């Protein structure tokens, strides 16, 4: 048995002075029980806790570490960068460099603005969409998480789903009333709402693959219909690719599904493990952003040189030939292994994957939206999670989170993971 004594003590100490002992709710392990691991270091596919246990890591800081932890190229560049000072509050060439890399990979965007988190990116994109259209209402989909801004904490998946608090106290009704929600993948409901309400709708924001209730794939016609309807009614279509950007493919889900959104939000991977978000879009829309236009948005640390450095190095590494083929190979190896393991262990699961993000649900229903995702047996998941942890595999501590593959995971790592999964599944 692995021991977690030091993590336990650290958690107790933290809980006395940090709400719930953590700086982001899902980290607290409440959905699965037990104490969170306190991490000391990480390298490649592995993460090490304060008790000295090693784990194969499929959380990857919730997505950013696609190259693996402490990638030598990123570490070296950061060491160099830090010597030159850590923040100037003035423009640098690095910001343009990252912007160029992003725009090249996401041709739907003409211009992009850097911020410090995914939350800031979506919040700002919506403000710009409202400024651009002069309309107030937004549409989001049940189970999609777009960060924790007031108007977006409505049926928001992830932490909210895990804790069963879809609407957070502290969000004024007046603020939430402008957020209309629809079931994901429901083209009929979408059509009828847009026909009824389009005059007041500024934008539709969507996770083109829903990673915040596990991994829910869009039906092929759903995104296409969404694009057509929004375009015909002058509604700004925002793809929240904070998770799927550089993850589902180099060009994100928009490249993968062949959709041209008006605006895109990025985060996670583009910061290479440092705090970064970005939002961008068509020229006329982005011309609204201050100081070019009247919509205000700012940030003391936006475009921070360390964060830009980590982002630039990460994207350059991802631009190398064959990288996404490799990721696909690794991810499909894990997919086949996990599906077979569940079959052999006689446990009913549904497995979904888009590029290098994936989820195993403990259900025999097809998962297409929030309701069907919720049919998953979370008690079984919790047992599975703990058994995997004991076997040295770190999964996200909630059924409603995606797993991620990195370039640092070897075939041997994946083989070990699959064997651990088989043993764990037999025990639940
Ligand atoms: C993680 C995430 C966010 C929020 O990003 P933060 O950096 O945590 O603020 C927004 N949208 C999606 C789709 C995400 O996965």
From TrEMBL:
Its EC number is 5.4.3.8. It is an enzyme of class 5 (isomerase). Keywords: Aminotransferase, Cytoplasm, Isomerase, Porphyrin biosynthesis, Pyridoxal phosphate, Transferase. It is found in: Cytoplasm. One of its GO terms (biological process) is protoporphyrinogen IX biosynthetic process. PROSITE patterns: AA_TRANSFER_CLASS_3. GO terms for molecular function: glutamate-1-semialdehyde 2,1-aminomutase activity; pyridoxal phosphate binding; transaminase activity. It comes from the Bacteria. It holds the Pfam family Aminotran_3. GO terms for cellular component: cytoplasm. The modification N6-(pyridoxal phosphate)lysine is found at residue 268. The keyword Transferase applies. It catalyses: (S)-4-amino-5-oxopentanoate = 5-aminolevulinate. Its cofactor is pyridoxal 5'-phosphate. InterPro entries: 4pyrrol_synth_GluAld_NH2Trfase, Aminotrans_3, Aminotrans_3_PPA_site, PyrdxlP-dep_Trfase, PyrdxlP-dep_Trfase_major, PyrdxlP-dep_Trfase_small. Homodimer. Belongs to the class-III pyridoxal-phosphate-dependent aminotransferase family. HemL subfamily. PANTHER family: GLUTAMATE-1-SEMIALDEHYDE 2,1-AMINOMUTASE, GLUTAMATE-1-SEMIALDEHYDE 2,1-AMINOMUTASE 1, CHLOROPLASTIC-RELATED. This is Glutamate-1-semialdehyde 2,1-aminomutase. It comes from Candidatus Sulfobium mesophilum.
């Amino acid at each position: 048995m692995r021991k977690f004594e030091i993590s336990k003590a650290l958690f107790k100490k933290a809980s006395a002075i940090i709400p719930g002992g953590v700086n982001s709710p899902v980290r607290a392990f409440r959905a699965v029980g037990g104490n969170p691991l306190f991490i000391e270091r990480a390298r490649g596919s592995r993460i090490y806790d304060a008790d000295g246990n090693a784990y194969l890591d499929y959380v990857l800081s919730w997505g950013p570490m696609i190259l693996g932890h402490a990638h030598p190229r990123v570490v070296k560049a950061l060491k160099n960068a830090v010597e030159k000072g850590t923040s100037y509050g003035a423009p640098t060439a690095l910001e343009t460099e990252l912007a160029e890399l992003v725009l090249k990979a996401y041709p739907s965007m003409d211009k992009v603005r850097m911020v410090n988190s995914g939350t800031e990116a979506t919040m700002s994109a919506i403000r710009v969409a409202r400024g651009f259209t002069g309309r107030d209402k937004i549409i989001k989909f049940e189970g999609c998480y777009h960060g924790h801004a007031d108007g977006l904490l409505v049926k928001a998946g992830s932490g909210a789903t895990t804790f069963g608090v879809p609407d957070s106290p502290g969000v004024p009704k007046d603020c939430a009333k402008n957020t209309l929600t629809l079931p994901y993948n429901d083209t009929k409901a979408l059509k009828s709402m847009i026909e009824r309400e389009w005059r007041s709708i500024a934008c539709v924001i969507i996770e083109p693959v829903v990673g915040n209730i596990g991994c829910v794939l869009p039906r092929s016609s759903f995104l296409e219909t969404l694009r057509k309807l929004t375009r015909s009614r002058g509604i700004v279509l925002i793809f929240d690719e904070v998770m799927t950007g550089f993850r589902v493919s180099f060009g994100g889900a928009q490249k993968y599904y062949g959709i041209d959104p008006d605006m895109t939000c990025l985060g996670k991977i583009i910061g290479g493990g440092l705090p970064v978000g970005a939002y961008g879009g068509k020229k006329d829309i982005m011309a609204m952003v201050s100081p070019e236009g009247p919509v205000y948005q700012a940030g003391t640390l936006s475009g921070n040189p360390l964060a830009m450095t980590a982002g630039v190095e990460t994207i350059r590494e991802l631009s190398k030939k064959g990288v996404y083929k490799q990721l696909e190979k690794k991810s499909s190896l894990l997919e086949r292994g996990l599906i077979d393991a569940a079959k052999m262990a006689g446990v009913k699961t549904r497995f979904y994957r888009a590029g290098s993000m994936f989820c195993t649900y403990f259900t025999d229903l097809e998962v297409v939206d929030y309701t069907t995702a919720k049919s998953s047996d979370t008690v079984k998941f919790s047992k599975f999670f703990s058994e995997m942890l004991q076997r040295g595999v770190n999964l996200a501590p909630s059924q409603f989170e995606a797993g991620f593959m990195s370039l640092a995971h070897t075939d041997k790592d994946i083989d070990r993971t699959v064997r651990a999964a088989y043993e764990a599944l037999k025990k639940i």
